[in-house]
Write a structure and sequence with these properties.
The complex is a heterodimer of chains A (380) and B (121).
Chain A: H1 14-19, E1 23-27, E2 30-35, H2 40-49, E3 51-55, E4 60-66, H3 71-79, E5 94-100, E6 106-114, E7 119-123, H4 128-139, E8 143-147, E9 151-157, H5 161-166, E10 180-185, E11 188-193, E12 202-208, H6 209-220, E13 225-227, H7 230-239, H8 281-290, E14 294-301, E15 312-314, E16 324-332, E17 337-345, E18 354-359, E19 362-369
Parallel strand pairs in A: 3-13
Antiparallel strand pairs in A: 1-2, 3-9, 4-7, 4-8, 5-6, 6-7, 9-12, 10-11, 11-12, 14-17, 14-19, 15-16, 15-18, 16-17, 18-19
Helix pairs in contact in A: 2-7
Chain B: E1 2-5, E2 10-15, E3 18-23, H1 25-31, E4 34-38, E5 45-46, E6 51-57, E7 61-65, E8 70-75, H2 77-81, H3 85-88, E9 97-101, H4 113-120
The chains are: A alpha+beta (380), B alpha+beta (121).
Chain lengths: 380, 121
Amino acid sequence: MLARESPLKRTPLHGLHVARGGKMVPFAGYEMPVQFPAGVLKEHLHTRSAAGLFDVSHMGQLALRPKSGRVEDAVLALERLVPQDIVAVAPGRQRYAQFTNEDGGILDDLMVANFGDHLFLVVNAACKAEDEAHLRAHLSDDCIIDSLGDRALIALQGPKAETALARLGADVTATKFMDSGPRKVAGFDCFVSRSGYTGEDGFEISVPAAQAEALVTMLLQNPDVLPIGLGARDSLRLEAGLCLYGHDIDTTTTPVEGALEWSVQKSRRSGGARAGGFPGAEKILTQFEKGAARRRVGLLALGRAPVREGALLFADAASSEAVGRVTSGGFGPSLNAPVAMGYLPTSLCAIGTQVFAEVRGQRLPLQVAAMPFVPNTYKR
Amino acid sequence: MTTLFTSDHEWIRIEGDVATIGVTDYAQSQLGDVVFVELPKVGRTLKKAEAAAVVESVKAASDVYAPISGEVVEVNEALAAEPALVNSDACGKAWFFKLKIADKSELGGLMDEAAYKAHTA
């Protein structure tokens, strides 16, 4: 390791991870558990059958407070940076969004919740400094941008998540997918959203850093709840067809190319009430009308060999020119088969189209497949 | 019967002029749950340190190297069908392939069990 490299940061749950046998690795500037003694396979399957607890405290949590005191002003200000309809996000609700750049590329993807008098944002760990600077540069006239660095963030995911959280006195049974707001959990002042990154029903819980360890200790006393590392987090989100920023989407991919059209509401598209008005609108809205040359698709391998990130994609077994690239890939424990996603020319994106990935000099057949690979179980 | 080890965590069991090769228990514990194994073709001639097989966990792919030079005389088809054997019985049922030893002097560069234990300590 180079001496000038800055030391890795630790989350408020670091001590607990080490005590539970977590194998710690560097990730986005933090020391994070990649797996616990159960191992990636069991952790993955346990999350789908019971409940998994994830430390995602490395992610950025921000409050966007309107200087006018009216949340509508923060909402309209944020709409200048994202192609989403934030006006339609009612108090107590949350929406998936992207910060775009002038070329229509994606600077980061994020969650935006309306907390009534301000907006609560959760952004990716690797992008959080840039995101905060971006918000300050563009929204400071209208908003106070508060970095909530004194809060931990945990995710509780899986069919037993609701019961586990309700057992700690959290009033969550009546909530639905993408509900979000301040709630007491075990007496602590948390922000609880019914969402996650696994395709399962579950919750993301922001808790004051000082109380994080106490809360997680209580959750882990429930035998249905196991700690889950980054390894299973990745295989779970891949089976759920969810993008990993910096891999499946980045500054060179637009929301249309990234197959995220569903996340851009009609009000921000051409002919909508607040059409355009976000960075890269011209390119993105043109792609909405005319289509893009390439697109993110799901890929199922026909054999057993995992096809991983970076593998080049070919239209047939012999052609010398690559037509695309795998951006995420590995083994899906719930599917018990390799799963991947990547970019292909639009002409090859129809479900069922056969393409080939080059792995160790061999061309392995893959089929374009619908995502999610594993049906999600969100509580609608 | 002698068992030797490489610094890349392969084991080599010598019986006459045939060497059986697998990955060590330490290697499988580092790999995690193995989901795919690719074996060399019978008849292939391998040079010492050449990538001979691939073992993939949920997390990543790793090469298995030929600890010595030789011709592949047998591969463990049961392993291709049940890759998880690497986790449950790394030094037994999860052997990868057998080599007809080309040059016994290459064995001199390998570790014995005590040296390998020190290597992974």
